[in-house]
Amino acid sequence: MKYGKLYAIIALVGIIVGSYWVINWQANRINSLTDINKKLAVALEEQKSINTDYQARIMRLNQLDIQYTQELANAKNEISRLRDISERHPERVYIKAECPKVKTTPATSLAYATTARPTDTAIRNYWLLRERIAESELMIKGLQDYIRVECVN
């Protein structure tokens, strides 16, 4: 019976030491997981902040896009309206033009008198150039605003 009590005490000490070791290991693991969780929480908050900032930037750019798209549509509509008016009433279109001078003096000056009118191709090119100038101007303004809003600030 002496040995039975001794084995029981040794078993009890072994259980206590084993339990202490398991509890210590679990506590270290819990502390490690808590640290990882804190780091992940900080990273998550940073990502939320980045996403919020990104959404605000997208909204600003969207507003710029809407503004300049609308201005471009308005400019194209105005050019189209002017083109329609000029086609219906060509006598109201004023384009600075010069008539070529005749080197010889005719007997009557009305013999060579013609109205100074541009060719149909010149008129088409005029409207095309005017439309492209409006597009380019609004593109440049849009890019300048983009740089001002996103890059400078």
From TrEMBL:
Pfam families: Phage_lysis
InterPro entries documented for this protein: I-spanin (IPR004929)
Keyword Transmembrane: yes
Domain of life: Bacteria
Entry's transmembrane regions: 6-23
Keywords: Membrane, Transmembrane, Transmembrane helix
Protein name: Lysis protein
Organism (species): Proteus faecis
